[in-house]
Every structure is written in structure tokens, then in C-alpha cells.
What does this fold into?
Amino acid sequence: MKLLLDTHCLLWWLDDPSVISKHTCTLISDPRNDIFISAAVIWEIAIKQSIGKLTVVGDVDLCIAKSNFKRLPISFEHAWITKQLPMIHKDPFDRMLIAQAMVESATIVTRDVNIPLYGIPFEMA
It folds into this structure.
């Protein structure tokens, strides 16, 4: 299974995994599953840190590497697909994650109630 973590899920996983449902924690921990972190997630964290809206303790990149998560760059195809998405969600980071999940046939792990409205596979965190 391919799982794509939304920003809040990554932050919870790194800080306090008990916030995530047991079922979803099991999926993330299962070595048979590929866990992806989008460049859009890192970009969102960096922006929020730089404007003082988010404090993250520790080195996010190092924690991602130690968790054996895979990096998912943003491709031209990912970017192009966003224009086809209905405007259910206006957050550009979430729209990119939705597009990436569609292109990569991945399941998004999120608590965002708008993401399932796109009809893509998701796991509620």
C-alpha cells in the first residue's frame, strides 16, 4: 500500500503518534507499506515555521529518514493535474497532495474532511 501523509499527520507522527488512530499507526508502521512525504508538506512546514505559525522540535528531514519514509518530489504532471480539480479545497498544499495521490495511486492519510470529497482513497488519521 502507498500512503501519502498530510502535513498534520507527519507532524503528529514525529511528535505524538498517539494522536493518530491505532489502525492508521499500524498502516504507517507496517514495513510492507510505502510511506511518502511530499515536497509540498515540507514546503508548508518551512513556510509556517518562517512566519512563526509553527514550531517543530528536531530535524524533520532526519526524522523522516529515520522513519524510512520516501520523499515524493513535485512533478510537472502533479502540478498540471491541480487545474482539473474542483475547487472543493482552496489550500494549495492540500490540492497538490490530492493531485499527487491521484497520479501516484496513493492513499492520503489525513483528518481533513474535504479531501475525501475528491473521491480518492484516504485513511482517516
